[in-house]
Amino acid sequence: MAEFSSPFFLCLLLVGLSIHCQHVLGQEDEVNGQKKTNPPEQHFQAKGNTTGENMAYHKIGPSNADFAFRFYRQAASQEDGKNVCFSPVSISTAFAMLMLGAKNTTLRQTLEAFAFNLTEIEEKEIHDGFRHLLHMLNQPDSGVQLSMGNALFIKDGLNVHPKFLEDVKSFYESEAFLSNFQNPPEAEKQINDYIEKKTEGKIANLVKDLDPDVLMVLVNYIFFKAYWKSPFFEHMTQEDHFFVDSKTSVKVKMMHQKGFFGIYHDETLSCWVVEMPYKGNAAALFILPDEGKMKQVEDALLKETVRKWEQALEQRNIDLYLPKFSVSGTYKMITLLQNMGLIDIFSKRADLSGITGNPDLKVSKATHKAVVEVDENGTEAAAATVIEIMVGASMDPPPVIKLNRPFLLLRKNIRSILFMGKIVNPKAP
Ligand SMILES: *[C@@H]1O[C@H](CO)[C@@H](O)[C@H](O)[C@H]1NC(C)=O
Ligand SMILES: *[C@@H]1O[C@H](CO)[C@@H](O)[C@H](O)[C@H]1NC(C)=O
Ligand SMILES: *[C@@H]1O[C@H](CO)[C@@H](O)[C@H](O)[C@H]1NC(C)=O
Ligand SMILES: *[C@@H]1O[C@H](CO)[C@@H](O)[C@H](O)[C@H]1NC(C)=O
């Protein structure tokens, strides 16, 4: 049955941050125009005790999840009635990396905004946790192609603390490049080419209008591509309506399959939860609130709620309809994060003295972009054949779960939320 298409889930996410100097640089910082790129392809060396590493990784999980849901609330309230699409783990990683250079109130606010409590976890454990997380996420995993990484673009000639560079390399596998920010088009091209390459061409020209006084740009990317364990058949896909709200509907390509999935109906919150596993070690959780219940479900969106859903999932035979879609989200994160208490790092009061030894740095730009595509892909439909046979043998008529109105999506892998989204209108850009 290899001629049929299997679904294709592609997700690309990226955080770009740039750090500016608060003051115009002096002549001594002038670069000589010589472009030196230095890509120290640092690879994580798994050190010693795997159990211990595992624990490091698990320890940051709850904080990352708390941050994800808090950030969701901010993003959703700002974009009322719009699609939401971001990678929580990607944002957390970028700022955790910055924490290596943050001190005093700046550090404290960053820890709080990212839901870390130093009475429960030590700073070293946080960075160990991210190191382990990056290592786990970048491991080759059959069927899932996922890579996440960081890069620093540093003004050529800037005196970055060697300790900071060592730490970002050893904990965050960060590549460091020297950039000529005095020539913004050249620096933009260098950064955008890097991002484009790392995201396989899906995110292009993200960085623009760089100021010539930028000192350092921090980029974090995550690239995810996976295939459903139980694929949809292309010939089952039909045009159908998606009800954006009570007055608006759009035509979508609705995929359809009958199969066994973990499902749960939350009576209290009035929503369906469907878990769709990918090949390899990842799954998507679709949350479909009953009509008019989106707000109620969003308000209850906490890690405890998701855990409860996951524990309650029951493998059932269902008739599942899911639209094909491609959505993206771009966030100017400063306002969102300021609302979450992260103030100083973006202001004159910033203390990022761990980076250069002097306190003249602040984060003056922070952009996050995520793109998600749900598509069909033309290989490996063997598993679906088996499932159709199982469906035929089933006694009860399967419940119909049709994602034809706004729904939520959580993409998970080894306890991390790689991606979180609200699909209000699959046809909106
Ligand atoms: C690994 O670490 C765990 C917890 O820190 C410890 O209990 C265990 O004995 C260690 N194993 C080895 C082989 O060192
Ligand atoms: C830390 O911040 C406090 C309050 O913002 C300030 O009074 C103090 O001088 C700072 N300490 C250092 C070492 O910069
Ligand atoms: C940090 O954790 C301690 C111990 O669990 C708790 O008492 C305290 O309230 C927490 N602080 C914050 C800001 O959540
Ligand atoms: C479908 O997936 C395979 C990997 O399983 C990939 O090699 C191929 O290029 C994909 N085809 C399309 C049309 O995306």
UniProtKB/TrEMBL annotation:
Q: Which CDD domains match?
A: serpinA_A1AT-like (cd19548)
Any GO molecular function: serine-type endopeptidase inhibitor activity
Q: Glycoprotein: is it a keyword of this entry?
A: yes
As given in the record, the signal peptide range reads 1-26
Alphabetical GO CC annotations of the entry are: extracellular space
Looking at the record, the residues that make up the Serpin domain are: 69-426
Please provide the record's keywords in A-Z order. Answer: Glycoprotein, Protease inhibitor, Serine protease inhibitor, Signal
Q: Which Gene3D superfamilies match?
A: Alpha-1-antitrypsin, domain 1 (2.30.39.10), Antithrombin, subunit I, domain 2 (3.30.497.10), Serpins superfamily (2.10.310.10)
Q: Does the keyword Phosphoprotein apply?
A: no
- Please give the family membership noted in the entry: Belongs to the serpin family.
Q: What is this protein called?
A: LOW QUALITY PROTEIN: alpha-1-antitrypsin-like
Question: Which species is the source of this protein?
Answer: Alligator sinensis
